[in-house]
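hey can u run this one w/ pyridoxal-5'-phosphate bound, need the structure tokens asap thx
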Amino acid sequence: MMRLNVPLLGEEEASAVARVLGTGYLTQGTQAAELERLIADLVGVPHGFATSSATTGLHLALAALGVGPGDEVVIPDFSFPATANVVVQQRAVPVFVDIGLDDFGMDPERLEAALTPRTKAIMPVHAFGLVADMDPIMTIAERHGIPVVEDAACALGAEYYGRQAGGLGTAGVFSFHPRKVITTGEGGMVMTADDSLAERLTVLRSHGAVRGERYMSFVDAGFNYRLSDVHAAIGVVQMGRLERILDGRRSLASELSALLRQISGVTPPVTPEGRTHTFQSYVVLLDEELDRDRVIDGMRERGIETTLGTYGMHLQPYFRERFRIDDSELPGATRAHRSALTLPLYEGLSADDLARIADALAATIRDQRG
Ligand SMILES: Cc1ncc(COP(=O)(O)O)c(C=O)c1O
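ok here u go:
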């Protein structure tokens, strides 16, 4: 079976972990600090806070911004539900905005109408590694004085008019889950250029504690969201592979798109002017009359693992029962929820493998159309 993704890992990661184990110092230390420095340098911001996942990073960012009960956080509807869950965890209310079907990102034209006096943050998502259309989003946010947290879980190394994802908003959060651009097993990082936010992130990431003269002093009810040095050591090695990973994914994506453009019923991913994509996931949009789930079955029968793009969150049981949003209010996200399809993409796929994916997809669609 051809898998969706295989992370690029080598002996160097194993040795780096062994070195950390050999020191006997396993919690957050020099390796996490090094990973933070490497990523802060890449993004071009002064602060990076390694966390145990992007989910804890997003939660930490919202808590540090003071998002609390009754506040609203505006997010795109089409995302991995962690984006909405962290809002709920702060007892705040997620407000779902529709997406555009070209970039699968928050539609800036629908953003303003979603703002209310209770809006405490805007959280655009860089879907599958393509930066959301940040300029209009930032313009609206600044006009209203609302902070922006980029859910950049999939977008390490993606650019928007020459600026790095994760450094465009008030804060930005990356994921290092094995299906992301680089991995630490589980892990994430919060980026910011805002010094006072950085202070809050420092305190809240580690139990709400500050160093006192003799003992720790607990000035807030914080979390333990630190990334261990065991994990961070993997990330430090992975950062040395970042350029190769991104180049590899981009060139495979462009070859695959050239093949898929020949197939009717399939729209390959687009990279709008001024933006670069990480292709953390390679996601196509199928024509509406095709049954995406049957396409997934057909691909599996042909030995190729595929999956949905990501989730229309208003369609998930918790959010559906709580908010009862009609599909007609979120047509883009609803369509993407039903018709987006992730195909395999990872280093090691040959030209023949790409042709096999394209042939299998063409045959599956042909079967379905009868
Ligand atoms: C857009 C988005 N946000 C957040 C997350 C959560 O990341 P993590 O698994 O590191 O908590 C994911 C993971 O799939 C994601 O795709």
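The mean pLDDT is 98. anyway lmk if its weird
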